[in-house]
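Support request, priority: normal
Reporter: lab tech (M.K.)
Component: structure prediction queue

Hi team, I submitted a job for JAB domain-containing protein from Paraburkholderia silviterrae yesterday, and the status page still shows it as pending. I've pasted the exact input below so you can check whether something in the sequence is tripping the parser. The sequence length should be 171 residues. Please let me know if I need to resubmit or if it's stuck on your end.
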Amino acid sequence: MSFSIRKTLRRLWSPQHKLACSAQLWRELVEELRVRSAGVRESGAFLLGRCEEDVRTITAFVLYDDLDPNALESGYVHIDGRYMGRLWEICREQKVSVVADIHTHPGGYGQSDTDRKNPMVAVKGHIGLILPDFAARKFSRSNMGIYVYRGSHEWETVGKARNPSFFYIGL
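Reply from support: The job had stalled in the queue. We restarted it manually and it finished. Here are the results:
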């Protein structure tokens, strides 16, 4: 049994959370998404980390256009499958898994038809996050999209009220 003060504090402050990220890493990620979106196109990243019990902890990220240089060229996210092998190499090297993915949208944070029909990782339980307004303005966990893949192109919307307890950003 491993003991961690950080894990204990997270459980005290947000006992139901399923996804966790340090505040520093979250700020770095959002800033990169904002810069790469440039206020005019979607950007995104695979979120890497560990799964312990039922909590996924984000420890790193790989931006889509770092894998596929053309991933953002159409204005929306599209990754050529030929570049996915590099993602799995990174996971093996860092001994992590893809715990979620994130991308930006113009305007709101609702899933598009394309998002629903084309999960970035089509594995039941995968978590997809969507940030509004190309991540160009401040937002909170209650005004971002959090979706859990259920398989067969079906998603559960976590929902505005549950977002803060589902996704912990802090220690």
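The chain has one domain: 16-170. The longest helix spans residues 23-37. Let us know if anything else looks off. Ticket resolved.
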